[in-house]
Amino acid sequence: MRLDVYLKTTQLVPRRSGATDLCRDGKVKVNGRPAKAARTVGPGDRITFRLPGREISVEVVALPARKNVPKAEAGTFYTVLDEKRFDFWGRPIKKKE
Q1: 90 part of a folded domain
Q2: Does the pTM of the predicted model rise above 0.90?
Q3: CATH number at residue 76
Q4: What does the pLDDT look like over 51-77, one tens digit per residue?
């Protein structure tokens, strides 16, 4: 499955065009390497992407069988490995304990 379609289908990014823009801007990495939107992803791949104010790392567990997946099912296709938050200036925000 294409990377941009996977990000949209699993609802990690709200729109496919947004996922394509993230890839074009170099904000998405698959297995530590910058990835284009058309890159094929599969189970075991690690995807890291940067959104405004946060960076998320997930591991692909399974691929959806269809392009429209209910929100309740969307989280079953990946495992969140790490999530970092950043302030306005890009500095990491420490978690409160």
Answers
A1: no
A2: no
A3: 3.10.290.10
A4: 888 999 999 999 998 888 889 898 899
